[in-house]
Specification:
With about 170 residues, the chain is an alpha+beta fold. The protein folds into two domains: about 30 residues; about 140 residues, Protein of unknown function DUF192 (Jelly Rolls, Sandwich). About 25% of the residues lie in helices and about 35% in strands. It contains four helices and nine strands. The protein has a seven-stranded mixed β-sheet. The longest helix is centred in the N-terminal third of the chain and has 26 residues.
Length: about 170
């Protein structure tokens, strides 16, 4: 086989491998919550006042693998969507925004369903740790700025019935 043909075959092989790698990378890097079909789903309700609450459809990150993936590479969420991270047993945690393309509010919730910390509009792609500032059981991630807009604040209660139903998954 001549050298020119060898280079051509190597080029075609490299191109095919590149296409295979790209398509498998895309399937591992979802860009919307809809692509996390196999993950658990549920509803989280936050009670701000006696008459005001906010409900979010969530994808549940319960296993170590799911928590590591989190919302990395997700490019869009509806206003009433989010991700709920479950930590059992409750503990202090630190979150980050590595490979996360959009600003997020991180709502840290203790085992009693009380919000103990809110990180507003965490910076996309940042690897800076965001601490829970106490022992938590859940972290709810929603679109950046939404906590302030909906008046969600530290001390608000997350309806335990909604969370307990998710824990039974």
């Amino acid at each position: 086989m001549n050298t020119r043909k060898s280079y051509f075959y190597l080029f075609v092989l490299a191109l095919n491998l590149s296409i295979i790698y790209s398509s498998s990378s895309l399937s591992n890097n979802p860009n919307s919550l809809d692509e996390l079909k196999k993950w658990g789903k549920g509803i989280v309700a936050i009670q701000m006042t006696e008459t005001e609450n906010a409900e979010f459809r969530v994808v549940i990150a319960e296993s170590n693998k799911e928590r590591r993936q989190g919302l990395m590479h997700i490019e869009f969420m509806e206003e009433n969507e989010g991700m709920l991270f479950i930590f059992d047993p409750p503990r202090k945690v630190s979150m980050w925004m590595r490979n996360t393309t959009m600003a997020l509010d991180m709502i840290f919730i203790n085992k009693d369903g009380k919000i103990i910390t809110i990180e507003n509009s965490a910076t996309p792609y940042s690897t800076k740790g965001i601490p829970s500032n106490g022992s938590i059981k859940w972290v709810l991630e929603i679109n950046g700025g939404l906590s302030e807009r909906l008046n969600i604040k530290t001390g608000d209660t997350v309806k335990l019935s909604a969370i307990e139903a998710l824990d039974e998954k």
